[in-house]
Amino acid sequence: MSQHGGACNLSLTQQATVCHTILREVFGYPEFRGPQQAIIEHVAGGGDALVLMPTGGGKSLCYQIPALARQRAGQGVTIVISPLIALMHDQVGALAEAGVSAAFLNSSLSGEEAALVEKRLLRGDITLLYAAPERVTTPRFLAQLDALFERGGLALFAIDEAHCVSQWGHDFRPEYRALTVLHERFGTVPRIALTATADTLTRADIIERLQLQAARLFVSSFDRPNIRYTIVEKKDTTQQLMRFITQEHNGDAGIVYCQSRRRVEEVAQLLCDEGIDALPYHAGLDGRVRQANQDRFLRSEGIVMVATIAFGMGIDKPDVRFVAHLDMPKNIEGYYQETGRAGRDGAAADAWMCYGLQDVVNQRRMIDESPAGEEFKQGLRGKLDALLGLAEATDCRRVRLLAYFGEASQPCGNCDNCLQPPDVWDGTDAARKLLSTVYRVQQMGGISYGAGHIMDILRGKVTDKVTQRGHERLSTFGIGAELTEVQLRGVLRQLIAIGAVAVDAEAFNTLQLTDASRAVLKGEVAVRLRQSVSTPGQRKAKRGAAAAPPPATLDADGQSRYLALKAWRAEVAREHNLPAYVIFHDATLLAIAELAPHSLDELQGVSGIGAKKLEAYGQEVLRVVVAA
Ligand code: ADP
Ligand code: ZN
Question: In the β-sheet with 253-257, what is the strand arrangement from edge to edge?
Answer without folding.
Answer: 227-233, 349-355, 320-325, 253-257, 304-307, 278-281
